[in-house]
Amino acid sequence: GESVGLHLPTLSVQEGDNSIINCAYSNSASDYFIWYKQESGKGPQFIIDIRSNMDKRQGQRVTVLLNKTVKHLSLQIAATQPGDSAVYFCAENTPLGGNKLVFGAGTILRVKS
Amino acid sequence: NAGVMQNPRHLVRRRGQEARLRCSPMKGHSHVYWYRQLPEEGLKFMVYLQKENIIDESGMPKERFSAEFPKEGPSILRIQQVVRGDSAAYFCASSPQGSYNSPLHFGNGTRLTVT
Description:
heterodimer; A: about 110 residues; mainly beta; 6-stranded mixed sheet; 4-stranded antiparallel sheet; B: about 120 residues; 11 strands
């Protein structure tokens, strides 16, 4: 039979604006969270991580916010550049069932010049 | 430092043939993970290995798929008697301490096409 892929949500931003990408994670026992960036034809590239004992962590032009109450994670990119265009995935490490990293569905970020 | 190396980058197999995908982890990394990605989807966990041991294979199909990470040499993901539904990108990742303590570093994947 025909298989139909999921359509990823898309965020379009103007170059120079800030971007916010959101993610709802599934397991309240998850204790370590990572954001990855995936460009076409490449593997996921690590951006930033955060542990469950933190609410916020900043990197270079990126900030990750964690709200454990509602199981929500966000990635903020300041002054978005064309090179930021990619698919962004959040991933949670779940200690239950063997410590594996579980990925969300992904968000496409398109930066308009 | 060389990153995670996967080969081949592209692999075409006819239905019924075998596919072997290779992964060399980053230097000093003894934890290897395999993930599968269909177009426009996220990565799905398949198997987690340490040297000579399978730690978690809960994401692997019970038949036709196997993985190994020998004491010497790369990790191998083997798919026997491939079917069209096996067509996907297969990514390998490695870490020095397992995904609880450190982020996984990914290779650029092997794109398997079954004709």
